[in-house]
Amino acid sequence: VIELYAVTDPPAEPLPDLAPLGALVSGDLAVVYGPASETQLSGEALWRHEEVVEALMDGHDVLPFRYGTRCANAAAATRAVAERQEELAAALERIRGAVELSVRVLVIDAAEAQPKTAADYVAAKARDAARARGVIESIDEPLSTRARARRQTPSGVPGEPLRAAYLVDRKNVDAFAAKVAALQARHTDLRLLCTGPWPPYSFVEP
Amino acid sequence: MRSKLLHTPPDVDLFAAERESVDASLSRRINADPENLERGLAQLVLTIVELLRQLMERQALRRIDGGTLTDDQVERLGRTFMELDRRMQELREQFGLTQEDLNLRLGPLGDLL
Predict the structure, then answer these.
(1) What span, in angstroms and rounded, lies between the C-alpha atoms of A32 and A52?
(2) What are the beta bridge partners of residue A31?
């Protein structure tokens, strides 16, 4: 059984020496894989997977596989990729030259007391909705103009009105981070966190 | 692994509040045992309930915004949703679930909630 790490351009060399990796070629695409480990799944194992994908990302454009994607053997992986050749090739083009940056926004007065009356509750809901709209306008929109694409993954918590991934050209990463810093300086009631560069997990699918 | 922090506020710990629950939900999602199975089922059921609750609440808030309801009706709706919200919180705590656990990633369709 093999564990898949990423789809990239052939020949996928040189491979990082973090794990015993191999590369198989299927049409215009290469898949980087390694032996599947039997260790208990954990946060630490997930980071090891991530480390390999990121090392690959240094020298190549990569479509990362989610941690835990496995195939019986290299032949099965080649077949699976061949079946989706066009789709995967299009996805690789979409992310070419770009990486994923993550932005989270917290509102610092969010830890408000539980609403006691029905009117308070309704007012709090209306305030949360207005605040979320404001953050989209003042933070998300200016950042989106500096990204090729963006995808929001709602946190579900009113105190965190924005959690989004941006597909940013590698050469624009520093400028994007500087923009986040500038927005932070302007919005003292918010806390902005920007992390990356990550493999473009959020942009593998169209 | 090199640092991934491109921009951090001085009080970055605010963002680490849910780290523990992420670790817990990771192992829960992946390592199956009978207790987790029960929790998984509860998670699925609560996800559907939460979806319906949010849809109803959004619709009610829109009606309140529209100004077509009497004060009395607003009060009753508000109380109902406040109570539902509280009950959902209790159920989540009982099964060790976070608000984020009650969401489904629907691939290209986006997220359920």
Answers:
(1) 10
(2) A7, A24
